[in-house]
Amino acid sequence: MIQDPLSLFKASLEGNDWGTAIIQINLKEKNYEVLLKNSNFSQLEKEFDFPNFLKNKISHYDFNTEIIYKTDGKVLETSFGHFDYPSGSKDFQFTKFVIRDITIKQKQEEEIAWRLRFELGVASSIQILIQKPSIRESLPQALYQLLYFTEMDSIFFLKNIATDESQKFEIWVNERKSTEYPLLPKKFETLDWKKEGINRWLHKLKNGKIIYLKKEKALPKEQWYFEESKAESILFIPVKFENKFLGIMGFQKYVPNFVIQHENLLIYQTVSRWMGLFVQRDSDLTELNRYKSTLESLILERTLDLSRTKEELERAYKAKTEFLAHVSHELRTPLNSIIGFSKLIQLPEGDVTGKEYLQYIYSGGTRLLKMINEILSLMKIESGQINILYSEFKPKEICRQSLELIQPQANAKGMEIRFFPPIQSKTIRSDSGKIQQILLNLLSNAIKYADHSYVEFHCEWSDFGVNFSVRDFGPGISQEDQKRIFHSFTRLNDDGKIEGTGLGLSISQGLAEKLGGSITLISHLGEGSTFILNIPENIK
Ligand code: ADP
């Protein structure tokens, strides 16, 4: 059965949450008539003074959407439809008027906006904590920022500085939104929580629990706190790091009937956890700096000690060197006479024993003199008293002179010396005497310690100056012995058959270093040894 159009239209107004009505407005008379309305409209129009509201709108010719915030917390949105249809007379207008209950929607929007704001506050305060190096500086600013974005009225941070049983705090932050709220009194730094009746708060906080308390829920002995602080509700959160109780973060609200939502509580707790991290980081840094400065002063002290010890050692060493040099010098003079005179003494032809003794005196004396001379050289090198006499000369010449001097020793042992002169005949600037001294020592060693028909003597230019190499085909020197062979008084396999003091190589090395050069040894047991003396072209 076909319904009449009006009942169809009326039915179409039903079916949603909105209160809808078709209203005829008389603009001239400034009144109206509700022609049709759905059941929701009948409900919602009772929620406020609808007749008055509409009349007012008509008389002000204001047909804009309007939101009504009711005292019971409800929020209603009213809006007018278009006025064009149907227009019978100029004075009459028709409109679809809608009332919506947007309480929930409004609440949700507010909630989202508030949460965004809160999270913004948390983020910006954490940003401040991250950026500033010292928490003492950044914390008040960061927490003020946080407070500004939250629903709370005041904030404080009590840093736990207790070292023993007695409870001690330091107020690091004490901020409020308005000066009408009192700040946390200074006495909280040394407050005896037990005596003041609020020990259960501290106990809970130390155990990681929060205190969220309204004035009316507080115990009688705790009431004084609310009276003194004027707070209506308090939220105290422990700040901890790995179970260490670092302090208390406190929020207070000064209006009654205030409830913190569960989600917000979680955010406050998260912020406190962050705080724990920052406070701990700060005290770690302070500790580290303290260690650093103690370490620095310790190092300074030790350095002073060491330089004092070094000076003492140097003084002692100098005294020893001077003493040895002096003694050696004193010994040399009489020894020279002994050697000299032993040569001059003429014994009768037949006195074989006497001549033998005389020979002992002579060879013993020369050996002793050689040793004393070597000690003297070493002392001079070690005490830096060695003088270098510069001249320009050809390396080949110095080799020739050395060969001439060593020839008798080689001949005595029946050894040949094969000399390989340098191809270039350039000159070097160095101390020829010192180089000769080194070469003689190396050549003499090669002759002394090798049992082979010949010794090789090379002289060649390299990128770093001149290389003089003395190569023998003797027993060679093990890797281990190569390390200690340059130490003074070191002799390998000293069975007394070969004469020596163990000083030659250390003197040679000391001299080479003074000339800006070095001695390198290449040797393998059973394969002979090569000692290479490198001397720079020009001493720097
Ligand atoms: P000295 O020859 O007076 O003992 P050196 O300092 O010149 O003192 O040499 C130290 C030791 O190194 C020698 O006693 C010897 O054992 C070893 N040495 C030196 N040159 C050679 C060499 N060419 N071959 C084998 N051993 C050597």
Automatic annotation (TrEMBL):
SUPFAM superfamilies: ATPase domain of HSP90 chaperone/DNA topoisomerase II/histidine kinase, Homodimeric domain of signal transducing histidine kinase
Transferase recorded as keyword: yes
InterPro entries for this protein: HATPase_C_sf, HATPase_dom, His_kinase_dom, HisK_dim/P_dom, HisK_dim/P_sf, Sensor_HK_Regulatory, Sig_transdc_His_kin-like_C
Pfam families noted in UniProt: HATPase_c, HisKA
GO molecular function, a single term: kinase activity
Keywords for the protein's UniProt record, in alphabetical order: Kinase, Phosphoprotein, Transferase, Two-component regulatory system
EC number assigned by the record: 2.7.13.3
Top-rank taxon: Bacteria
Catalytic activities: ATP + protein L-histidine = ADP + protein N-phospho-L-histidine
Protein name according to UniProt: histidine kinase
Source organism (scientific name): Leptospira levettii
